[in-house]
User: Fold this.
Amino acid sequence: MRTKITILLTLMVLNANAQLKPVTYNDGNQKLNGFAAKPIKALKQKPGILILPTWLGINNHCKEVAEKLSKLGYHAFIADIYGEGNYPNTPQEAGKIAGFYKNDYKAYQRRIALALEQLIQSGADADNIVVIGYCFGGTGALEAARAGMNVKGIVTFHGDLGKDASRKNDAIKPKVLVLHGADDPHVPQKDIEAFQKEMNEGNADWQMIYYSNAVHAFTEKEAGNDNSKGAAYNEKADKRSWEHFMLFLDELFVRK
Assistant:
């Protein structure tokens, strides 16, 4: 009886994740391990959403988001920025490797572009792409815009907004939506002001929405609920930010 129950539970798990498939791709000799989620019924424009993870790498939240988007008719792909053999096990390790890509932004942009290719190969229309990112991934989403990638929209959830002050502000073509915790201690005011200046000088169509009582990582349930730590889940901000994300997608794509 126990064996039958185990098999049944296994099948249920497999069915729940049936649309999420591992995808191996490469950056030169570096093996990358992403995940693709194809919609059962794609929207007319075959839009694709590229998901950029937090500094800890691909987690359950990213996978849940990919599956949720696929059920809404979007092609989704979760990027592997770090590559096999480089996945962090601690926040300290994550900070070190994420810091490398923040400093070497062109390497970050290259990894994003490679993941974008995988999203398009999975069936998404190359002219109907949105890049979203969480925390460190929010930086990456903005880097996709800064690099001039062919994307229609950029969305950051509690993302890092700063860039090296020596870099010039260029035109920002995709629409930009920033979903930000009002009490986020990890994004200094000077970075917010510099980001807004960048958007204005780039003649961007941009929005920035603040959520009260929300700190960093407000969509991440694994972050706990202690705001004093600077990173914590906030159910209200999580739900509101998702609805704002959906409204943003409705501006770009016809959901039929």
Notes: Helices lie at 2-16, 60-71, 91-103, 105-121, 136-146, 189-201, 235-252. The longest strand covers residues 20-27. The chain has a mean pLDDT of 93.
